Structures are given as C-alpha cells and as structure tokens.
Amino acid sequence: METIITKSQVADAVYAAIPKLACVLPADIEAGLAVARELEGNPRGRAVLDQLIENAAIAAEDRVPICQDTGTVWVSLEIGPDVAVRGDVFADVDDAVARAYDEARLRKSVVRDAVLDRANTGDNTPAFCDVHPVDEPGAARLHVMLKGGGSDNASRVVMLVPGAGKQGIVDELVRCVREKGANACPPLVVGVGIGSTFDKVAGLAKRALMRPVDEPAADDRLRALEEELLAAVNATGIGPGGLGGRTTALAVRVATAPCHIAALPLAINMGCSAMRRITVPLACQPAERLDAAASRRTRSSRDAAGLRTEVRGACAIPRISGTAETLADFAEPASDRSRCARSAADAGEEVRHG
Q: The Fe-S hydro-lyase tartrate dehydratase alpha-type catalytic domain covers which part of the protein (predicted)?
C-alpha cells in the first residue's frame, strides 16, 4: 500500500524544530561537553568548556539563542522505497522558516545571491532542502539543521587520487583542522564524506553530522576509521575555543559511498560546539485516505460554490451559478451598480459583477 508524506507535515516539523534548535543544545552535545570538561587538563580549555556549558544552560532556561549566528536552515527528507511525496513537498517550508525566525526573533542570515545581490532576504529564506531515498521500507524522517557560517567556512571538498588511500584522508582532515578548525568554534563535530562524486560528497559529510556523538558507527571498519580520525584531530592540541587542550573535537562522523575507480572524493564539514540538528520521524498516511479526503473537499467546495458572496469595497456582490431566470432574480438595478462602482473606485478597490 502506498503511503504519503505531505508538504504540511514537512513544514510543520520545520516550524516546530527551529526555535528549539536555536535555544536548546542537543542532549548528546551537552553530555559530550560535560565529559570533555571532566577530562580536560588545560586550564584555558577547561574554562572555555565551563562557559559553553553555562551558556547552554542560560539559553535553554531563558529561551534565547545559544549563538547569535542562528544559521541557514538545511532540511533533508529521508524516505523509504514504499513512501511517496506528491508535487513539491517543500513548497511550504520557506513560509515556515520565515514565521519561525520572526516569532522567535532569530537573526536572519541569508542573502539574495552569493555574488550578484548580497542584500539580506529579511526572513532567513530560502531554506536548503533535499529528498534522500533510503533502502528502508516505511522510513520517513526529516533532518533539520541550523548551520552557522563560521563552521561551514571551515569546511572543504578535495578530490584525492585513489593512491592517497586512508592516510591521505587522515592527512587532509588534519590539515583542514589545523588551518581552519579554531575559527569553527571548537570543540567540533566533524562530518566526513568519502566517495560518490564531486557534487554529492559534500552531502555525505553534512548527513554524517546528523549521527549523535554517542552513537558509534554500526560497521566495525567505519567505527575504527572514525576513532583514528578523532585521535588525529585531537592530537593537534587546538582545544576548546582554539585556546589549547585535549578536546578539539567531540566526534568525527564518517559516511561513505561508491565512487569512480580513478577518484577518491573527500568532503569535510565542520560542525561547531553548538551542533544544532534534530531528526524528526514523520507518520506516513495511506494514499487512499488522503485521496478520499481530497475528493470530499472538492465536492464540498463545488457545493459551496453554488452561492458565494464576495466583498469588494462597499458592495456585497452575489456570485450565482444557475439559469438565466435565476440570475435575473438577483440582478441589481443599474443605478445601484454604478453607485457601488463609484464607492469602490474611490477606495481603490476592484469591482466585479455577477
């Protein structure tokens, strides 16, 4: 049986997620900071972690943003093979984003065009959305992330040659962290994408950030790679806030994919200490039920269209469907129509008759 995810479900989930993400640190990140605080031996690093933990507590209690950069909105809908979407499932997302940012008084950080027009859009739209099919029957979940500019600016895509191998990946990640990690507000969560193509590998890295820091990879080989990469990152000694210490990153999360025999695509997507993301499960609805409801609404609309009154300016003008005799029964005297037209024209309103 076909099941459906509707655009209203997606928009409602995004609208609800934004103020929570902006003000409440995800539980796995908060716990990770607390563990890092207990293990940190560098006084400056420990002081930074104390401030981050205190800041998160104040933000949650006072319902104010964790960070002044409340980010761009990234939305990814994951659906299984038996789940369908009809039309543009993201059609209402921008409206949801605009309302959420306005009502929660969050900073708007999106410009109209990266090069041609860097005027602020004024409502933090557009959101950046994609649909991602997964091989899980019945799966329907929505990933939402508020991504700050500093952490994205510290990210990169590199097309390595296959001969670079695993060591090339380690070296490139460490190079990226050394060059840019301090500007990304550590301790970091680092998403690493390996494989696919030039245009897809960055998406792998971003989706990797969705896995909680306390959830190891299911594959033993991937788990070992993540541990090796995390050890290499923390060995840099950049530390919390870039002021030195043992915890430069809370976790490294890796997502891999097939690729061309001549390529080794690598993407590194930095996530800051305020790793604001959430995964929302969506309830699929049977297509037959939605179709039946739509049919009832259509019939109801047609029935209601038999006699509907529209207001334009000072006049109430009946719109009637029926025979010529019926229309004649509701005809207005010409003088009344002229009077209504003049009143509406004075008010700058459109006038429509019958």
A: 12-280
Backbone φ, ψ for residue 195 (5° rounding): 110, -165
72-79 and 128-133: which strand pairing? parallel
Cα Dmax for the chain: 92
Question: Would you tell me the crossing angle of helices 93-103 and 7-23 to the nearest 10 degrees?
Answer: 30
Strands 128-133 and 83-85, bridge-based pairing: unpaired
Write the CB contacts of 299 (distance below 8 Å, at least 6 apart in sequence).
Answer: none
Amino acid at 190: V
Report pTM.
0.81
Q: Sketch out the chain's domains with CATH numbers.
A: 1-23+65-147+274-289 (3.30.360), 149-272 (3.30.1330)
Tokens of 166: 């695993």
Cα separation, 69 vs 150, in Å, equals 9
3-class secondary structure, 7: helix
Contact 192, 173 (CB under 8 A): yes
Enumerate residues 6+ apart whose C-beta is below 8 A from 89: 5, 6, 7, 10, 77, 131
Q: Quick check: 230 and 291 in contact, CB under 8 A?
A: no
Spatial contact of 46 and 245, defined as CB atoms under 8 Å apart: yes
Sign of CA dihedral 268, 49, 16, 80: positive
Residue 161 main-chain phi, psi, to 5 deg: -90, 150
DSSP-assigned states of every residue in 263-281: -EEEEEEEE-SS--EEEEE
Burial 237-272 (b: 16+ CB within 10 A, else e): ebbbbbbbbbbbbbbbbbbbeebeeebbbbbbbbbb
pLDDT in tens, 177-230: 999 999 999 999 999 999 999 999 999 999 999 999 999 999 999 999 999 999
Interval 262-273 mean pLDDT? 98
**225, 195 Cβ separation under 8 angstroms:** no
